[in-house]
Hints:
The chain is mostly beta strands. It has two helices and twelve strands. The strands form three sheets. Strands 1, 2, 3 and 4 form a four-stranded antiparallel β-sheet that branches. Strands 5-6-12-7 form a four-stranded antiparallel β-sheet, sandwiched between helices. The chain is globular, with a radius of gyration of 16 Å.
Amino acid sequence: MNWYLKLFCCKNNKQLVKLTVDLFSLGSWQSNHIKKEYFSVNEATCSPHCTSGWGSYGIRCFKYIANSTDWVSAEKHCLKLHANLVSTHSEDEFQLVKAFIRAHDPMENPTWIGLSDCQEWIWSDGTELNYVNWNPSEPNHLNNECCVHTNWSDQKKWNDIPCTINYPFVCAKKPA
């Protein structure tokens, strides 16, 4: 399976990115997986539904926060923005979140997402856990690891890690 991302600028000289995710699998295009949406990498948006500084995809708005903080503080910051740490429910969303992070951090450093397991696996936005994308041998729950970040190790997938470590994060919310 290969993912292709096409990026370009648009609209009123503001730095915007049109993201096209095309899934090419087994030599044929899977057109039912093609997504074409706009999201912003600066303080503007192509979506009439997301406020300035938020990018849009589907029915949600996304914001990358570069300031590193612990998981609980990251979730509190998102809550102040009427959002939660990002949840992903499909490979398409996983790839979009990775592309969104990469647009802000070309090094693709580890970034908090909204999944935790301090008592049971749950997304901070309350949505169902219906998709996972763990690195090999994860989750392993070593040293009270009950929070999750993405872009870990060479595979750049999910890893459980102690909630007290500082990372940047992505907030997500439904448009107002």
